[in-house]
Amino acid sequence: MKIKNILLGLSAFLAISISSANATPNAYVTFHTSKNYLVHINNGYTALEMLNYPLALKEFLTAKYIDDELSASYEGLGRVYEITKNYNQSLKNYQKALDLISPKYAQDMVSKINHYRANKEVKNTLALYKIILSIRPEAGLQVLYGDQNKKEKNWQKALVSYQRAYDFQENPQGYLRYLEIKYPNKEYERYLVNKYIQKNLSYPEAHFKAGLVNLDKGNYYNAINEFSRANSQITIPDYENKYTFYLAKSYYKLGVSNINKPVASPLNKAIIYFDKYLKIQPNSSEALFSLANSYFYKDIANSNSFNKQLEQTEKEFEKVQKLPIQDPEYLDKKKDLNIILNKKYNSNFFEKTLETLERIRSLKSYDPGVYYSLGNTYFKKGMMSKGFYDHYKNMNSEKSASRDKTYSYFQSSIEQYKKYINKNPKNNGLVFYDIGIVYYQSSKLEPNRTILPITEENAKEYERWGPKFYKRDMLGHSIANFKKYLNYYPHAKNSAEISNLMREMQLAMIAVW
Fold this sequence. Notes:
Blueprint: H1 2-5, E1 15-16, E2 29-30, H2 35-49, H3 53-66, H4 71-83, H5 87-101, H6 107-118, H7 122-134, H8 137-151, H9 155-170, H10 172-182, H11 187-196, H12 204-216, H13 220-232, H14 237-255, H15 264-280, H16 285-304, H17 307-318, H18 328-344, H19 351-361, H20 369-383, H21 386-393, H22 401-423, H23 430-442, H24 459-465, H25 467-488, H26 496-512
Antiparallel strand pairs: 1-2
Helix pairs in contact: 2-3, 2-4, 3-4, 4-5, 5-7, 6-7, 8-9, 9-12, 10-11, 12-13, 12-14, 13-14, 14-15, 14-16, 15-16, 16-19, 17-18, 19-20, 20-22, 20-23, 21-22, 22-23, 23-25, 24-25, 25-26
């Protein structure tokens, strides 16, 4: 019956010997204790189960008297003092247990404990002590193997080591079988392992590290699974938030794994977890940019989801286009088309992206790259607006309000790109390509005269030529920016894309007159 009541981890009586930190870790498990010592440890935890704290304290103190160089008694004392709310003594004994174990496989957590103690975060300190002290030595050793393999870029071996680490921790019977194979002639030691094994242990950091390998290698489903398990196994805010960020990042990567066909479902998940992370780290520029990108591609995915329906609706409308516009059948088909258009070209698309980017810009110290992202977003909003659809479907010169909005989005895009250039005079030149594209697409629109880009220098030309000069003006700006881009990337002159674009714009310039 006592065996079933044991809650003590292997760290209570196992010690690891690790080779040089700069070499591949090599370790062996030794069992340097006595049966009498273990009986008192067993009795101490049995007393804890029975809520008999004075007896538990007596048993752990007796074990400490028998051998004060083993961590189990100090860990037990720490537990008794924690339960009885004598936190100073609890911290003191947990630290002594940790010093005796000296876990090289948890140095980051040990550093975090020192941080928590310095800031008097007692709750988090106690929780982290228990996590470290619960790690089975062989499980910790596998994490060291994984870290070394990752350092050497042996990704698959690293992943196997991390998986083995949490399997040793969470699967006691599997761990026993491993020890029986590794130590076939140590029946007494295996008896002790079986006697003191815990069935409710976890190893969130091993799951986290396995998740990082999967994320780096593009195995996003596996990464999501690992980060989710890590997240579910810990309640310490710093670690929970770290796992949350990478869980969000994995969902984002999954959602944009095919950048031309983003998927809304994982991007919605990414948004949820980035929001959760930002509640604790509201000024994280990386998380805010990632959140903005998640909104951006989610809206693209949602718009794309109406493509097939729009194509079919357009075909139906084409059948009645020659009917009088008051004809009931024409009106019905036109109504159907407008409904699907309003869904595909939703005016709210990218508003959340813009809102998040403005949030970045409001930070005291922000990344100037936010202007580049704003430029991209305004351009995409213009390209995915009903005004641009009207241009292609209504080739007459109708000056619609929706087309004016599209034009304003393009102008906002150019404005933001120029701000980016001002903030980054030594930028890589790609922004000039983007500006050239925006001007080129702007040349295809014909906005109202009231919002034409008329200045003192070009007022007479606009007055004389009107829309013709607008198109020529936009094309001229486009060509000028492409030439700036080619100054940075002269080899691009030979690319078919650039050659075709330049030729197309030259022909468009000629066609204007």
